[in-house]
Amino acid sequence: MDSAAVISFGGHNLSHKPLAAQLYRKNKDNWVSIDRKINYLQSFSQKFDYAKDIRIYGMFGWLSNMLSEYQQASFKWTKRIGARGFLGTVLSALLLLVQNSAAYAVLIIMVLNGDIGTGDFVFFFGAITGFSAWLNGIGSTINDIVQKSIRIGYYREYFDIAEKYNHGVGCPLPQNDELPVEIEFCGVSYCYPSAEEKEIRA
To answer: Any idea of the CA torsion for 71, 72, 77, 80, to the nearest 10 degrees?
Structure first.
């Protein structure tokens, strides 16, 4: 009966974490575009080439408000994922409490009824604790594998994207005896918009 109580609640670690992973996988496209915009704005603000235009046209407040808006939207999804994970953790803790309480209550009742002695009580106490930790370890490992499998799936989806810029077999690369290579321009010229004569002719 002790083992049945432990096994019946031993799968709690397998049930709650996939819920957060499922929510993440189902809604990841909602914040991917938001994170892309945040990264663009942050990289844009770090380029000195645009600093002059930002000051001249007074774009600092507009860019700051836009970045704050996207960060709040991203944080909204982060809170949803965190809340789902926290709820699962609380549920896991409650189930673990019920599991241990049921198993230890059975042991105490057996001791009071004289079915087992003090030595057996200590032995079963440690056995139940160890078995419960073993089941929890298996659940954590499986959840970790599921998380890694999801992320590997993202890489596979990326590599399965059709190549649009591959136009076939290219020219062979020069061999060692052909190095260094030279570039020759033939029939090429350039003229500035305000000039009458061409500045570069080849």
So the answer is: 140
CB burial of residue 91 (10 Å; 0-12, 13-18, 19+): middle
| Contact present, 119 and 62 (Cβ < 8 Å) | no
Question: In 3D, which of 18, 34, 30 has the Cα closest to residue 150?
Answer: 18
15-29, 110-124, 149-163: which range is least confident on average? 15-29
Handedness of CA 179, 183, 184, 186 (dihedral sign): positive
131 touches 6 (CB < 8 A): yes
d(CA 195, CA 118): 104
SS3 84: helix
Q: Cis before residue 172, ω within 30 degrees of 0?
A: no
